[in-house]
Amino acid sequence: MHRLYGDLAPWWPLISPPSEYVDEIPRLQAALGPPGRLLELGSGGGHVASHLLQFDRTLVDLAEPMLAVSRELNPDCRHEQGDMRTIRLNERFDAVLVHDAVDYLLTEDDVEQMLDTAAEHLVDGGRLVIVPDDIADTFQPGTTSGGSDDAHGRAARFLEWVHELQPGETSVQVDYVFVLRERDGSVDVVHEQHECGLFTINQWRRMLSDFTDVVVSVTDESWGEGVLITARRSRR
Does position 223 have pLDDT exceeding 60, yes or no? Predict the structure, then answer.
């Protein structure tokens, strides 16, 4: 468990505020289709879900501390702890969303297990929407930064450093540095390394071969270059 999703989880609303997701919501809403039952796998702190109010939302995440953050933000949502590769709720949903938590799936086998979970939880013809941060075809290493303050003197800043993709690999190393200021002015600096999966368009299409209407798109949105993968559960 990365510290970001463990003991640092209460800082998540300042590291990546819900307001930062607003611009991509119309695109997600269009991809998810009409209001209905929505299952989000890897829902994290619930920042995406907080903007999808027209859906009856069930949120699944592996990290209980992140679910605690989401419960505070989304008291009207159902929350379940579990691994997106193996959880089974024995229910069907109109749509399944997997946002950037999909980046922690490092191999094709990991992704295929997640896709099995999605298929098991979708109605016939139900929509699957996946939003990885990158695909290998257009990937560029680089750095980003961000963070915010609250009204009570707490503040968080981060630096994200995404390294080169090595030949033959399906994952990249990402270094994070978090600078966290408490209300009393004390500051903590935390560094940790993450590893994130990175697959080509052809790999995604192959992994989604049991689904229909598969589209892998990369567009230059107002919120930056965005990858959006959509598909439907085959009718059986």
Answer: no
